[in-house]
Amino acid sequence: MLRLMSLVRLFVTHPLGQGQPVPLTREQAHYLFGVMRLEPGAEVALFNGADGEWRAVVAETGKKGGLLNCMTQAVAQGEPPDLWLCFAPVKKARTDFIVEKAVELGVRRIQPVATEFTNSERFRQDRHQANAVEAAEQCGATFVPEVADLVRLDRLLADWPADRHLMFCDETRAGPATALSGAPEGPWAILIGPEGGFSAAERARLAGMALARPVSLGPRVLRADTAAVAAMTLWQAALGDWR
Amino acid sequence: MLRLMSLVRLFVTHPLGQGQPVPLTREQAHYLFGVMRLEPGAEVALFNGADGEWRAVVAETGKKGGLLNCMTQAVAQGEPPDLWLCFAPVKKARTDFIVEKAVELGVRRIQPVATEFTNSERFRQDRHQANAVEAAEQCGATFVPEVADLVRLDRLLADWPADRHLMFCDETRAGPATALSGAPEGPWAILIGPEGGFSAAERARLAGMALARPVSLGPRVLRADTAAVAAMTLWQAALGDWR
What is the interface pTM, i.e. ipTM, of the complex? Predict the structure, then answer.
Protein backbone atom coordinates (compact mmCIF):
# COMPACT_ATOMS: atom_id res chain seq x y z
CA MET A 1 0.00 0.00 0.00
CA LEU A 2 1.11 3.59 -0.58
CA ARG A 3 3.43 5.10 1.98
CA LEU A 4 1.85 8.50 2.39
CA MET A 5 4.00 11.33 1.15
CA SER A 6 7.69 11.81 1.59
CA LEU A 7 6.87 14.44 4.23
CA VAL A 8 7.95 13.75 7.75
CA ARG A 9 4.82 13.21 9.78
CA LEU A 10 4.84 14.09 13.45
CA PHE A 11 2.40 13.82 16.33
CA VAL A 12 2.53 16.77 18.71
CA THR A 13 0.65 17.51 21.92
CA HIS A 14 0.00 21.12 21.00
CA PRO A 15 -2.87 23.03 19.41
CA LEU A 16 -2.68 23.37 15.65
CA GLY A 17 -4.20 26.10 13.54
CA GLN A 18 -3.44 28.69 10.89
CA GLY A 19 -0.28 30.58 11.76
CA GLN A 20 0.06 28.63 15.03
CA PRO A 21 3.67 28.36 16.21
CA VAL A 22 4.50 24.91 17.53
CA PRO A 23 7.54 24.58 19.80
CA LEU A 24 9.39 21.28 19.67
CA THR A 25 10.60 19.10 22.50
CA ARG A 26 14.21 17.99 22.65
CA GLU A 27 13.22 14.56 21.36
CA GLN A 28 11.25 15.96 18.45
CA ALA A 29 14.10 18.34 17.56
CA HIS A 30 16.53 15.44 17.54
CA TYR A 31 14.25 13.47 15.25
CA LEU A 32 13.52 16.30 12.81
CA PHE A 33 16.95 17.94 12.66
CA GLY A 34 19.38 15.26 13.80
CA VAL A 35 17.82 12.21 12.17
CA MET A 36 15.74 13.55 9.30
CA ARG A 37 18.13 16.47 8.67
CA LEU A 38 15.41 19.03 8.06
CA GLU A 39 16.45 22.64 7.57
CA PRO A 40 14.59 25.94 8.01
CA GLY A 41 11.86 26.16 5.40
CA ALA A 42 11.29 22.43 5.21
CA GLU A 43 7.70 21.25 5.29
CA VAL A 44 6.41 18.87 7.93
CA ALA A 45 3.01 17.27 8.46
CA LEU A 46 1.69 17.67 12.00
CA PHE A 47 -1.30 16.20 13.81
CA ASN A 48 -2.41 16.16 17.42
CA GLY A 49 -5.39 13.80 17.42
CA ALA A 50 -7.92 16.62 17.48
CA ASP A 51 -7.22 19.29 14.84
CA GLY A 52 -6.65 17.16 11.77
CA GLU A 53 -3.38 17.25 9.87
CA TRP A 54 -1.57 20.52 9.21
CA ARG A 55 1.28 21.47 6.96
CA ALA A 56 3.91 23.34 8.93
CA VAL A 57 7.21 24.92 8.04
CA VAL A 58 10.42 24.73 10.05
CA ALA A 59 11.12 28.21 11.44
CA GLU A 60 13.94 27.49 13.90
CA THR A 61 16.18 24.47 14.28
CA GLY A 62 18.27 23.47 17.26
CA LYS A 63 19.79 20.60 19.18
CA LYS A 64 17.42 20.96 22.12
CA GLY A 65 14.33 22.40 20.53
CA GLY A 66 12.93 24.24 17.57
CA LEU A 67 9.87 25.93 16.16
CA LEU A 68 7.41 25.12 13.40
CA ASN A 69 4.74 27.40 11.98
CA CYS A 70 1.46 25.92 10.85
CA MET A 71 0.41 27.02 7.37
CA THR A 72 -2.61 25.11 6.09
CA GLN A 73 -4.82 22.22 7.09
CA ALA A 74 -4.23 19.29 4.77
CA VAL A 75 -6.62 16.73 6.24
CA ALA A 76 -9.69 17.24 8.37
CA GLN A 77 -9.78 15.49 11.72
CA GLY A 78 -11.03 11.94 11.24
CA GLU A 79 -12.43 9.60 13.78
CA PRO A 80 -12.62 5.87 13.37
CA PRO A 81 -15.85 4.06 14.18
CA ASP A 82 -16.66 3.50 17.84
CA LEU A 83 -14.88 0.16 18.09
CA TRP A 84 -12.76 -1.07 20.99
CA LEU A 85 -10.16 -3.77 20.52
CA CYS A 86 -9.86 -5.82 23.72
CA PHE A 87 -7.22 -8.51 23.73
CA ALA A 88 -5.12 -10.66 26.00
CA PRO A 89 -1.52 -9.48 25.65
CA VAL A 90 0.96 -11.91 24.16
CA LYS A 91 4.72 -11.77 23.66
CA LYS A 92 6.08 -8.27 23.22
CA ALA A 93 6.68 -8.27 19.48
CA ARG A 94 3.24 -9.64 18.72
CA THR A 95 1.52 -7.28 21.15
CA ASP A 96 3.37 -4.39 19.46
CA PHE A 97 2.01 -5.70 16.20
CA ILE A 98 -1.57 -5.92 17.46
CA VAL A 99 -1.42 -2.30 18.64
CA GLU A 100 0.02 -1.14 15.32
CA LYS A 101 -2.64 -2.98 13.34
CA ALA A 102 -5.43 -1.64 15.55
CA VAL A 103 -4.34 1.91 14.69
CA GLU A 104 -4.10 1.14 10.97
CA LEU A 105 -7.42 -0.64 10.82
CA GLY A 106 -9.19 2.09 12.78
CA VAL A 107 -10.30 1.54 16.38
CA ARG A 108 -11.32 4.06 18.98
CA ARG A 109 -9.66 2.39 21.98
CA ILE A 110 -7.19 -0.41 22.71
CA GLN A 111 -7.94 -2.34 25.88
CA PRO A 112 -5.57 -5.06 27.12
CA VAL A 113 -7.31 -7.76 29.16
CA ALA A 114 -5.92 -10.29 31.63
CA THR A 115 -7.81 -13.59 31.51
CA GLU A 116 -7.38 -16.79 33.48
CA PHE A 117 -5.09 -18.29 30.87
CA THR A 118 -3.27 -15.13 29.84
CA ASN A 119 0.38 -15.94 29.39
CA SER A 120 1.69 -12.43 29.89
CA GLU A 121 0.64 -10.43 32.90
CA ARG A 122 2.65 -7.36 32.13
CA PHE A 123 1.48 -4.65 29.80
CA ARG A 124 3.47 -1.46 29.49
CA GLN A 125 0.73 1.06 28.83
CA ASP A 126 3.20 3.88 28.19
CA ARG A 127 5.21 1.90 25.71
CA HIS A 128 2.15 0.78 23.82
CA GLN A 129 0.61 4.24 23.78
CA ALA A 130 3.86 5.43 22.19
CA ASN A 131 3.61 2.55 19.69
CA ALA A 132 0.11 3.70 18.82
CA VAL A 133 1.34 7.26 18.23
CA GLU A 134 4.11 6.01 15.98
CA ALA A 135 1.73 3.76 14.07
CA ALA A 136 -0.57 6.73 13.51
CA GLU A 137 2.34 8.86 12.28
CA GLN A 138 3.28 6.18 9.78
CA CYS A 139 -0.13 5.23 8.44
CA GLY A 140 -1.46 8.75 7.95
CA ALA A 141 -4.10 8.61 10.68
CA THR A 142 -5.23 11.86 12.32
CA PHE A 143 -6.67 9.99 15.29
CA VAL A 144 -4.65 8.17 17.93
CA PRO A 145 -6.61 5.58 19.90
CA GLU A 146 -6.24 5.60 23.67
CA VAL A 147 -4.29 2.62 24.94
CA ALA A 148 -5.78 1.68 28.31
CA ASP A 149 -4.15 -0.04 31.27
CA LEU A 150 -4.41 -3.80 31.66
CA VAL A 151 -7.70 -4.82 33.26
CA ARG A 152 -8.95 -8.22 34.39
CA LEU A 153 -11.70 -9.71 32.27
CA ASP A 154 -14.12 -10.09 35.17
CA ARG A 155 -13.69 -6.40 36.03
CA LEU A 156 -14.06 -5.37 32.36
CA LEU A 157 -17.30 -7.30 32.06
CA ALA A 158 -18.63 -6.16 35.43
CA ASP A 159 -18.22 -2.52 34.34
CA TRP A 160 -19.35 -3.15 30.78
CA PRO A 161 -21.22 -0.19 29.21
CA ALA A 162 -24.86 -1.01 28.58
CA ASP A 163 -24.85 0.33 25.03
CA ARG A 164 -21.81 -1.46 23.66
CA HIS A 165 -22.01 -4.78 21.82
CA LEU A 166 -19.22 -7.30 22.13
CA MET A 167 -17.91 -9.72 19.54
CA PHE A 168 -15.73 -12.38 21.12
CA CYS A 169 -13.57 -14.76 19.19
CA ASP A 170 -13.89 -18.23 20.60
CA GLU A 171 -11.45 -20.83 19.41
CA THR A 172 -13.66 -23.64 20.62
CA ARG A 173 -16.11 -22.67 17.94
CA ALA A 174 -13.73 -23.22 15.05
CA GLY A 175 -16.05 -23.53 12.10
CA PRO A 176 -17.89 -21.24 9.72
CA ALA A 177 -17.30 -17.61 10.55
CA THR A 178 -20.48 -16.31 12.10
CA ALA A 179 -21.68 -13.52 9.89
CA LEU A 180 -21.95 -10.07 11.38
CA SER A 181 -24.56 -9.12 8.83
CA GLY A 182 -27.73 -8.12 10.61
CA ALA A 183 -25.77 -7.24 13.73
CA PRO A 184 -26.85 -3.94 15.31
CA GLU A 185 -25.16 -0.64 14.61
CA GLY A 186 -23.70 1.44 17.42
CA PRO A 187 -20.72 1.08 19.73
CA TRP A 188 -18.93 -2.26 19.55
CA ALA A 189 -15.95 -4.09 20.97
CA ILE A 190 -13.91 -7.05 19.80
CA LEU A 191 -12.50 -9.42 22.41
CA ILE A 192 -9.59 -11.66 21.41
CA GLY A 193 -8.86 -14.32 24.00
CA PRO A 194 -5.46 -15.65 25.00
CA GLU A 195 -3.71 -18.48 23.20
CA GLY A 196 -4.85 -20.86 25.91
CA GLY A 197 -8.43 -19.88 25.23
CA PHE A 198 -11.06 -18.75 27.67
CA SER A 199 -11.71 -20.80 30.80
CA ALA A 200 -15.03 -22.60 31.18
CA ALA A 201 -16.15 -19.97 33.67
CA GLU A 202 -15.20 -17.13 31.36
CA ARG A 203 -16.99 -18.75 28.46
CA ALA A 204 -20.09 -19.21 30.56
CA ARG A 205 -19.92 -15.58 31.64
CA LEU A 206 -19.71 -14.42 28.02
CA ALA A 207 -22.45 -16.81 26.92
CA GLY A 208 -24.73 -15.31 29.55
CA MET A 209 -24.09 -11.74 28.42
CA ALA A 210 -26.88 -10.41 26.21
CA LEU A 211 -24.61 -7.90 24.50
CA ALA A 212 -22.01 -10.51 23.61
CA ARG A 213 -21.94 -12.68 20.52
CA PRO A 214 -19.39 -15.34 19.58
CA VAL A 215 -17.75 -15.11 16.19
CA SER A 216 -15.66 -17.90 14.76
CA LEU A 217 -12.73 -17.03 12.53
CA GLY A 218 -12.80 -20.09 10.29
CA PRO A 219 -11.69 -23.69 10.67
CA ARG A 220 -8.00 -23.15 11.32
CA VAL A 221 -6.37 -22.08 14.58
CA LEU A 222 -5.19 -18.47 14.40
CA ARG A 223 -2.56 -16.78 16.50
CA ALA A 224 -3.77 -13.86 18.57
CA ASP A 225 -2.26 -11.29 16.24
CA THR A 226 -3.80 -12.88 13.14
CA ALA A 227 -7.15 -13.19 14.92
CA ALA A 228 -7.07 -9.52 15.92
CA VAL A 229 -6.53 -8.33 12.35
CA ALA A 230 -9.07 -10.78 10.94
CA ALA A 231 -11.71 -9.77 13.50
CA MET A 232 -11.16 -6.04 12.95
CA THR A 233 -11.34 -6.59 9.19
CA LEU A 234 -14.63 -8.48 9.40
CA TRP A 235 -16.11 -5.85 11.67
CA GLN A 236 -15.00 -2.92 9.55
CA ALA A 237 -16.38 -4.52 6.41
CA ALA A 238 -19.73 -5.38 8.04
CA LEU A 239 -20.36 -2.49 10.43
CA GLY A 240 -17.55 0.03 10.13
CA ASP A 241 -16.27 2.62 7.73
CA TRP A 242 -15.12 0.14 5.13
CA ARG A 243 -18.67 0.00 3.83
CA MET B 1 -6.55 -18.55 20.13
CA LEU B 2 -5.81 -22.05 21.38
CA ARG B 3 -2.29 -23.33 20.85
CA LEU B 4 -3.02 -26.84 19.65
CA MET B 5 -1.95 -29.51 22.05
CA SER B 6 1.21 -29.72 24.05
CA LEU B 7 2.39 -32.37 21.58
CA VAL B 8 5.42 -31.54 19.50
CA ARG B 9 4.27 -31.16 15.94
CA LEU B 10 6.67 -31.94 13.13
CA PHE B 11 6.58 -31.78 9.35
CA VAL B 12 8.37 -34.68 7.66
CA THR B 13 9.00 -35.47 4.02
CA HIS B 14 8.12 -39.12 4.41
CA PRO B 15 5.04 -41.25 3.88
CA LEU B 16 2.83 -41.67 6.91
CA GLY B 17 0.49 -44.53 7.65
CA GLN B 18 -0.42 -47.10 10.27
CA GLY B 19 2.71 -48.76 11.63
CA GLN B 20 4.90 -46.74 9.27
CA PRO B 21 8.41 -46.21 10.64
CA VAL B 22 9.67 -42.69 10.04
CA PRO B 23 13.42 -42.11 10.19
CA LEU B 24 14.56 -38.69 11.40
CA THR B 25 17.14 -36.37 9.90
CA ARG B 26 19.95 -35.02 12.04
CA GLU B 27 18.14 -31.70 12.31
CA GLN B 28 14.88 -33.29 13.35
CA ALA B 29 16.67 -35.48 15.91
CA HIS B 30 18.35 -32.43 17.40
CA TYR B 31 15.01 -30.67 17.68
CA LEU B 32 13.10 -33.58 19.16
CA PHE B 33 15.75 -34.99 21.49
CA GLY B 34 18.17 -32.12 22.08
CA VAL B 35 15.73 -29.22 22.29
CA MET B 36 12.40 -30.78 23.23
CA ARG B 37 14.04 -33.54 25.32
CA LEU B 38 11.73 -36.29 24.14
CA GLU B 39 12.46 -39.83 25.26
CA PRO B 40 11.50 -43.22 23.84
CA GLY B 41 7.77 -43.71 24.15
CA ALA B 42 6.97 -40.01 23.83
CA GLU B 43 4.16 -39.09 21.45
CA VAL B 44 4.68 -36.73 18.52
CA ALA B 45 2.29 -35.35 15.92
CA LEU B 46 3.54 -35.77 12.35
CA PHE B 47 2.29 -34.45 9.02
CA ASN B 48 3.72 -34.40 5.50
CA GLY B 49 1.27 -32.25 3.58
CA ALA B 50 -0.47 -35.23 1.99
CA ASP B 51 -1.43 -37.89 4.56
CA GLY B 52 -3.07 -35.81 7.24
CA GLU B 53 -1.75 -35.73 10.78
CA TRP B 54 -0.57 -38.88 12.53
CA ARG B 55 0.29 -39.68 16.10
CA ALA B 56 3.67 -41.33 16.28
CA VAL B 57 5.77 -42.72 19.10
CA VAL B 58 9.50 -42.27 19.59
CA ALA B 59 11.13 -45.66 19.05
CA GLU B 60 14.82 -44.69 18.92
CA THR B 61 16.60 -41.53 19.94
CA GLY B 62 20.04 -40.31 18.94
CA LYS B 63 22.22 -37.30 18.31
CA LYS B 64 22.29 -37.77 14.57
CA GLY B 65 18.98 -39.46 13.88
CA GLY B 66 16.17 -41.46 15.33
CA LEU B 67 13.02 -43.38 14.55
CA LEU B 68 9.32 -42.78 15.09
CA ASN B 69 6.52 -45.28 14.57
CA CYS B 70 3.15 -44.04 13.32
CA MET B 71 0.21 -45.26 15.38
CA THR B 72 -3.06 -43.58 14.39
CA GLN B 73 -4.30 -40.81 12.16
CA ALA B 74 -5.50 -37.90 14.24
CA VAL B 75 -6.56 -35.47 11.53
CA ALA B 76 -7.56 -36.15 7.95
CA GLN B 77 -5.62 -34.33 5.25
CA GLY B 78 -7.09 -30.90 4.74
CA GLU B 79 -6.71 -28.61 1.81
CA PRO B 80 -7.36 -24.91 1.90
CA PRO B 81 -9.46 -23.30 -0.80
CA ASP B 82 -7.79 -22.72 -4.17
CA LEU B 83 -6.47 -19.27 -3.32
CA TRP B 84 -3.10 -17.83 -4.24
CA LEU B 85 -1.56 -14.98 -2.30
CA CYS B 86 0.56 -12.84 -4.61
CA PHE B 87 2.43 -9.98 -3.01
CA ALA B 88 5.34 -7.65 -3.47
CA PRO B 89 7.97 -8.59 -0.90
CA VAL B 90 8.77 -6.04 1.76
CA LYS B 91 11.38 -5.95 4.55
CA LYS B 92 12.36 -9.37 5.83
CA ALA B 93 10.44 -9.41 9.09
CA ARG B 94 7.22 -8.28 7.48
CA THR B 95 7.60 -10.70 4.56
CA ASP B 96 8.14 -13.49 7.12
CA PHE B 97 4.95 -12.34 8.74
CA ILE B 98 2.96 -12.33 5.48
CA VAL B 99 4.07 -15.91 4.75
CA GLU B 100 3.15 -17.04 8.26
CA LYS B 101 -0.28 -15.43 8.07
CA ALA B 102 -0.94 -16.90 4.62
CA VAL B 103 -0.41 -20.37 6.05
CA GLU B 104 -2.64 -19.69 9.06
CA LEU B 105 -5.40 -18.14 7.02
CA GLY B 106 -5.34 -20.93 4.46
CA VAL B 107 -3.95 -20.37 0.97
CA ARG B 108 -2.92 -22.90 -1.64
CA ARG B 109 0.15 -21.05 -2.94
CA ILE B 110 2.32 -18.09 -2.01
CA GLN B 111 3.65 -16.14 -4.98
CA PRO B 112 6.08 -13.23 -4.51
CA VAL B 113 5.86 -10.61 -7.25
CA ALA B 114 8.32 -7.95 -8.34
CA THR B 115 6.59 -4.79 -9.53
CA GLU B 116 7.95 -1.52 -10.86
CA PHE B 117 7.97 0.08 -7.43
CA THR B 118 8.92 -2.98 -5.40
CA ASN B 119 11.39 -1.95 -2.76
CA SER B 120 12.95 -5.35 -2.23
CA GLU B 121 14.20 -7.34 -5.21
CA ARG B 122 15.44 -10.30 -3.22
CA PHE B 123 13.23 -13.13 -2.09
CA ARG B 124 14.77 -16.17 -0.48
CA GLN B 125 12.41 -18.90 -1.67
CA ASP B 126 14.08 -21.56 0.45
CA ARG B 127 13.93 -19.52 3.61
CA HIS B 128 10.31 -18.63 3.10
CA GLN B 129 9.31 -22.19 2.24
CA ALA B 130 10.89 -23.19 5.56
CA ASN B 131 8.93 -20.39 7.26
CA ALA B 132 5.75 -21.79 5.75
CA VAL B 133 6.55 -25.27 7.07
CA GLU B 134 7.17 -23.88 10.54
CA ALA B 135 3.98 -21.84 10.45
CA ALA B 136 2.04 -24.98 9.49
CA GLU B 137 3.66 -26.92 12.35
CA GLN B 138 2.62 -24.24 14.79
CA CYS B 139 -0.91 -23.56 13.65
CA GLY B 140 -2.04 -27.15 13.25
CA ALA B 141 -2.34 -27.14 9.48
CA THR B 142 -1.96 -30.41 7.58
CA PHE B 143 -1.30 -28.58 4.32
CA VAL B 144 1.82 -26.58 3.51
CA PRO B 145 1.38 -24.09 0.68
CA GLU B 146 4.06 -24.00 -1.99
CA VAL B 147 6.18 -20.86 -1.82
CA ALA B 148 7.11 -19.95 -5.39
CA ASP B 149 10.13 -18.07 -6.68
CA LEU B 150 9.93 -14.33 -7.24
CA VAL B 151 8.34 -13.50 -10.60
CA ARG B 152 7.87 -10.16 -12.35
CA LEU B 153 4.32 -8.88 -12.49
CA ASP B 154 4.28 -8.63 -16.28
CA ARG B 155 5.38 -12.26 -16.57
CA LEU B 156 2.85 -13.38 -13.95
CA LEU B 157 0.02 -11.67 -15.81
CA ALA B 158 1.23 -12.84 -19.24
CA ASP B 159 1.08 -16.46 -18.04
CA TRP B 160 -2.09 -15.98 -16.01
CA PRO B 161 -4.32 -19.08 -15.92
CA ALA B 162 -7.58 -18.52 -17.76
CA ASP B 163 -9.74 -19.93 -14.99
CA ARG B 164 -8.39 -17.96 -12.04
CA HIS B 165 -9.93 -14.73 -10.83
CA LEU B 166 -7.75 -12.00 -9.36
CA MET B 167 -8.55 -9.58 -6.59
CA PHE B 168 -6.04 -6.75 -6.49
CA CYS B 169 -5.74 -4.26 -3.70
CA ASP B 170 -5.30 -0.81 -5.07
CA GLU B 171 -4.36 1.94 -2.67
CA THR B 172 -5.47 4.62 -5.08
CA ARG B 173 -9.00 3.45 -4.53
CA ALA B 174 -9.04 4.06 -0.80
CA GLY B 175 -12.72 4.19 0.05
CA PRO B 176 -15.50 1.74 0.78
CA ALA B 177 -14.30 -1.85 0.57
CA THR B 178 -15.65 -3.31 -2.64
CA ALA B 179 -17.79 -6.22 -1.64
CA LEU B 180 -16.85 -9.66 -2.88
CA SER B 181 -20.43 -10.82 -2.55
CA GLY B 182 -21.67 -11.98 -5.93
CA ALA B 183 -18.13 -12.69 -7.05
CA PRO B 184 -17.74 -16.01 -8.87
CA GLU B 185 -16.65 -19.20 -7.17
CA GLY B 186 -13.62 -21.14 -8.37
CA PRO B 187 -9.87 -20.52 -8.26
CA TRP B 188 -8.84 -17.08 -7.08
CA ALA B 189 -5.75 -15.03 -6.32
CA ILE B 190 -5.13 -11.97 -4.20
CA LEU B 191 -2.52 -9.45 -5.37
CA ILE B 192 -1.07 -7.06 -2.81
CA GLY B 193 0.95 -4.29 -4.41
CA PRO B 194 4.13 -2.70 -3.06
CA GLU B 195 4.12 0.18 -0.64
CA GLY B 196 4.85 2.54 -3.51
CA GLY B 197 1.71 1.31 -5.23
CA PHE B 198 1.31 0.07 -8.78
CA SER B 199 2.67 2.14 -11.65
CA ALA B 200 0.24 3.70 -14.10
CA ALA B 201 1.13 1.07 -16.68
CA GLU B 202 0.57 -1.75 -14.19
CA ARG B 203 -2.75 -0.31 -13.14
CA ALA B 204 -3.84 -0.02 -16.75
CA ARG B 205 -2.78 -3.61 -17.38
CA LEU B 206 -4.84 -4.82 -14.42
CA ALA B 207 -7.81 -2.65 -15.38
CA GLY B 208 -7.80 -4.25 -18.82
CA MET B 209 -7.79 -7.79 -17.45
CA ALA B 210 -11.26 -9.32 -17.46
CA LEU B 211 -10.43 -11.73 -14.64
CA ALA B 212 -9.17 -8.97 -12.35
CA ARG B 213 -11.20 -6.86 -9.98
CA PRO B 214 -10.02 -4.07 -7.70
CA VAL B 215 -10.89 -4.25 -4.04
CA SER B 216 -10.38 -1.36 -1.68
CA LEU B 217 -9.49 -2.09 1.92
CA GLY B 218 -11.16 0.91 3.54
CA PRO B 219 -10.32 4.59 3.88
CA ARG B 220 -7.02 4.29 5.75
CA VAL B 221 -3.63 3.41 4.28
CA LEU B 222 -2.58 -0.11 5.26
CA ARG B 223 0.87 -1.59 5.35
CA ALA B 224 1.46 -4.53 3.04
CA ASP B 225 1.30 -7.05 5.87
CA THR B 226 -1.94 -5.64 7.23
CA ALA B 227 -3.42 -5.50 3.73
CA ALA B 228 -2.47 -9.13 3.09
CA VAL B 229 -4.25 -10.36 6.22
CA ALA B 230 -7.27 -8.13 5.64
CA ALA B 231 -7.60 -9.25 2.01
CA MET B 232 -7.29 -12.94 2.89
CA THR B 233 -9.86 -12.49 5.65
CA LEU B 234 -12.38 -10.81 3.35
CA TRP B 235 -11.91 -13.48 0.71
CA GLN B 236 -12.20 -16.39 3.13
CA ALA B 237 -15.36 -14.94 4.64
CA ALA B 238 -16.98 -14.27 1.23
CA LEU B 239 -15.74 -17.15 -0.94
CA GLY B 240 -13.60 -19.46 1.14
CA ASP B 241 -13.98 -22.02 3.88
CA TRP B 242 -14.90 -19.54 6.57
CA ARG B 243 -18.45 -19.66 5.29
Answer: 0.89
